[in-house]
Amino acid sequence: MADGINGEVRSVIKESLKTMTPMQKVLYLLDCYKWHLLITIVLLSVAIHTIVAIATKKEMVLSVAVINGPAANEDKINELAYNYCKSVGIDTDTCEILIDINYTIGHGENETVMGDYQTQKLMASASMGMLDVIITDKETFEFLSENGFLMNMEDLLDKDEHDRLAERIVKADVVDDEDNRTQEETGIDITGFEKVASEGWYYDTGCYVGVNYYTENKDRCLEFIDYITEK
């Protein structure tokens, strides 16, 4: 039945076209098949967008979390990221780094529902190795150290780098699975370094940088710390 109806429709269209000029034929066909054309165009647009998105997607080579930092200028953040990439030879056409300044974590009386959510998000991201470098205030630095989220600087820095930053390296308590506390070098006090100050990353208790214990990106982390602590 459907084939018969379709055949009749085609016959009507064919007969109508015989008496039309070329331009009239084009307009007539466009009117008859406008929905087919529209759907085809939409599908093609989606396909092209998907292909372009995949082709132009950049590789994430470093993820930096700035916790409890003051409101920062996005242009300055992008400039820092660009200059870092340029200094270490990262191709910004194919690669990028993320500097996330949206983490806010409270402690004790200052803890909020949103802050608790941010804490869980931070810990989950760190545990899965989605974060590399963490910049924060003293209290959050000590919290992350105590819970085993920050790498020992002795495992990250070579002797020359360790010697260069010796006066800035900070120890904090680290608690193991049996609740034993040990002091480890889990961070660097970066308060006052030019690149840090220019970004407005300052805290009343000082500004600290640490490296996520679960990162698989140690070399990039070291390059970034080298960059922001250059004099």
Can you walk through the features of this model?
This protein has 231 residues and is of the alpha/beta class. The protein has two domains: 2-55, no CATH class; 58-228, 3-Layer(aba) Sandwich (D-Maltodextrin-Binding Protein, domain 2). The chain contains nine helices and six strands; from the N terminus they run αααβαβαβααββαβα. It has helices at residues 2-18, 22-32, 34-56, 74-88, 113-127, 138-146, 159-164, 194-198, 218-228; strands spanning 59-67, 95-103, 133-136, 169-175, 181-189, 208-211. It has a six-stranded mixed sheet with strand order 2-1-3-6-5-4, sandwiched between helices. The N and C termini lie far apart (83 Å).
Mean pLDDT: 79
Biggest sheet: strand arrangement: 2-1-3-6-5-4
Reported by name, the CATH topology of the largest domain is D-Maltodextrin-Binding Protein, domain 2
C-alpha end-to-end distance: 83 Å
Give the CATH level 1 class of the largest domain: Alpha Beta
Spatial shape: elongated
**Count of extended strands:** 6
Runs in which pLDDT lies below 50 for 5 or more consecutive residues are 1-5
Topology:
Layout: H1 2-18, H2 22-32, H3 34-56, E1 59-67, H4 74-88, E2 95-103, H5 113-127, E3 133-136, H6 138-146, H7 159-164, E4 169-175, E5 181-189, H8 194-198, E6 208-211, H9 218-228
